[in-house]
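Handout, page 2. Input:
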Amino acid sequence: MAAIVYGDINFGMAAEAGLYVESVDFDTSVDTVFIGDEQGADVAGATFNPSASFSITGFTDTSGTMTAKTGEAIVLANAIDWTDVLANGYTSGGQTIITGVKVGLNHKNAESKDVSGMFKPFLGATAP
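Output:
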């Protein structure tokens, strides 16, 4: 059943292929370098190499196939607009790569799956 949303908010999320999604989290980061003066106070610095990590938690949908394989690229149905959260000249493109897959089995619950990975904004696509 679809939710009735009041106000101007983002509510809910899309299903990923082969996965009933329970939650999706994104974290961004950037490398930093600071230069200190003779007294140790930071007087200059730079940020570079922006990236983001993601994690998806859900339950396996046996009617679909989630082809989450470590080391492969993935297109996320729940991807955010990276231009809203990444600086350092990012405008478009990049690659989302799976870095981990965790499968959980339980005798009193459905098969669970956690998929994690990274988004590298300046990484180009290369065929294996």
